[in-house]
Structure to design on (537 residues):
């Protein structure tokens, strides 16, 4: 099946995922169009992170289908490396390479994986670091940067591969409150530029502001979804209402 | 606090956390050796003639030390230097093979993993002397390649025999160091499309290289101290030559303390700085970047 931009760029259909006997995802379906920003919210342990990790094949699924640009992710013959070039991911704990400077962290994958020309890669890496507002920190090691700064380097590192879709897995959950904002601003810039973003987040205000669509998951299923305005103000399901009343 | 309750609570949270048994310390030798104060060398030098003096009879201690004095250049430059040479070669071979074996233990292929694990365990848990004798007896004393006969001298066999247990222990150091890197690093690399091999060589190994140096040096010190085992194979090294020198000096029992004591002083003087350096490196590397 060939993919055209009018089809969903990421599409999940009836996805089931278990760890041993414990079923984490019990039939999840969702579609993301190119340029859309979607936020997945829900109580901890509801399978949000597992869901997002299935999209770039860090976790495999037992049943159902996930496609990225029309390509089946659960296909055993799938070229995982090709998939991951299209899907960037940012983690809660940043996971920067501690032995490399900020600039080297950003440059590494395009140089070693894409085997691009070092000079163009460096130019791109420097402009990405500028974009995440970290000019002057190029030669600092991750250990010398704050959590928020490290997370922005991680975003730049992921963007250096020029992905079509970005996955954000609770990227502000490990940060100090005062550095959360700088990371959220970076993501907002990206969304404004038309990057397709899938976020797992606890930042409700942020979700409301940037998301085109909100999905609420609980116990492995999507309970309710909708555009932010109607989702936050006119939630119908009692579980959603309860969650929102606790968090807002 | 109620004294009747003290010490009798069954609340697990109130019990002190006690590690069961000793934890394995990968620097066990150098930590002990390096913890000795530097003046222990002086104490050793002072006690050694004293101990020798205590057992003196007709053939005086002075005579014995005079004999040792005559033999010192030979014992040092023909003997101990050879121990150092054997240890360096064995370390070189052991490190090369051990690194490969350690990486094989991390293979995703079950068979490779199993075989390399078995080899590691076999050589790690065999007595060194047994390994030395196996190599000595199993290897021919010469090999003929394309009509050219190449003799294999005893010291080469000793090097091979000593490199085997070193190899197995280096293998474990490599495996342990790689496993000590958080799995999140693998995931981050994976999500950036790095292959497993690329991740290992470009991201994981550079991070744990420093961590491997102190235990590697620990094994070098152990290996160096094990080189006198080669005297049992008749390889010319310090202990072999000390025995021959004492024979040449008519085997007076008074010669034993000076001659073997000299070997002890040399080994201590060689290994002690290594131990101190290892401990210093370990302290420096344990500070997070």
């Amino acid at each position: 099946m060939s993919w055209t931009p009018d089809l969903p760029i990421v599409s999940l259909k009836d996805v089931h995922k278990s760890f041993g006997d414990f079923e984490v995802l019990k039939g999840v379906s969702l579609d993301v169009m190119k340029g859309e920003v979607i936020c997945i919210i829900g109580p901890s342990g509801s399978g949000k992170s597992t869901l997002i990790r299935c999209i770039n094949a860090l976790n495999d699924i037992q049943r159902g289908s996930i496609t990225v640009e029309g390509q089946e992710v659960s296909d055993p013959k799938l070229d995982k490396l090709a998939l991951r070039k299209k899907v960037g991911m940012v983690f809660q704990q940043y996971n920067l390479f501690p032995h490399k400077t900020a600039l080297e962290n950003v440059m590494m994958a395009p140089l070693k994986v894409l085997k691009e020309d070092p000079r163009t890669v460096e130019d791109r890496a420097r402009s990405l670091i500028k974009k995440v507002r970290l000019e002057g920190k190029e030669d600092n090691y991750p250990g010398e940067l704050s959590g928020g700064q490290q997370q922005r380097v991680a975003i730049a590192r992921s963007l250096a591969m020029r992905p079509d879709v970005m996955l954000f897995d609770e990227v502000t959950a490990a940060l100090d409150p005062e550095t959360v904002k700088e990371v959220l601003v970076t993501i907002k810039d990206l969304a404004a530029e038309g990057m397709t973003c899938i976020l797992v987040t606890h930042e409700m205000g942020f979700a409301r502001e940037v998301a085109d669509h909100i999905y609420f998951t609980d116990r492995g299923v999507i309970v309710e979804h909708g555009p932010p305005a109607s989702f936050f103000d006119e939630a119908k399901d009692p579980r959603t209402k309860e969650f929102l009343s606790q968090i807002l | 606090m109620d004294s009747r309750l003290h010490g009798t609570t069954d609340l697990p949270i109130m019990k002190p956390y006690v590690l069961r048994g000793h934890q394995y310390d990968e620097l066990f030798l150098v930590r002990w050796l390096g913890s000795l104060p530097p003046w222990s060398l002086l104490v050793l030098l002072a006690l050694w003639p004293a101990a020798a003096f205590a057992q003196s009879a007709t053939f005086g201690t002075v005579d014995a030390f005079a004999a040792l004095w005559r033999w010192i250049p030979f014992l040092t430059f023909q003997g101990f230097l050879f121990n150092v040479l054997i240890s360096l070669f064995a370390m070189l071979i052991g490190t090369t093979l051990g690194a490969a074996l350690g990486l094989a233990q991390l293979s995703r292929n079950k068979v490779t993993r199993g075989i390399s694990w078995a080899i590691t365990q076999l050589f790690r848990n065999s007595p060194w002397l047994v390994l030395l004798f196996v190599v000595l007896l199993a290897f021919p004393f010469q090999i003929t390649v394309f009509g050219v006969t190449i003799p294999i001298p005893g010291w080469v066999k000793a090097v091979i025999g000593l490199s085997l247990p070193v190899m197995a222990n280096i293998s474990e150091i490599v495996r342990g160091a790689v496993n000590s890197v958080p799995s999140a690093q693998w995931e981050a690399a994976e999500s950036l499309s790095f292959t497993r091999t690329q991740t290992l060589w470009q991201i994981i190994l550079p991070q744990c290289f420093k961590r491997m140096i102190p235990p590697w040096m620990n094994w070098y010190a152990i290996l160096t101290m094990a080189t006198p085992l080669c005297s049992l194979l008749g390889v010319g090294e310090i202990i072999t030559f000390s025995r021959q020198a004492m024979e040449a000096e008519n085997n007076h029992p008074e010669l034993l303390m000076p001659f073997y004591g000299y070997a002890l002083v040399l080994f201590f003087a060689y290994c002690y700085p290594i131990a101190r350096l290892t401990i210093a490196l370990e302290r420096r590397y344990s500070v997070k970047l």
Remarks:
- The mean pLDDT of chain A is 90.
- The first strand of chain A starts at residue 10 and ends at 19.
- DSSP finds nine helices and ten strands in chain A.
- Residues 177-192 of chain A form the longest helix (16 residues).
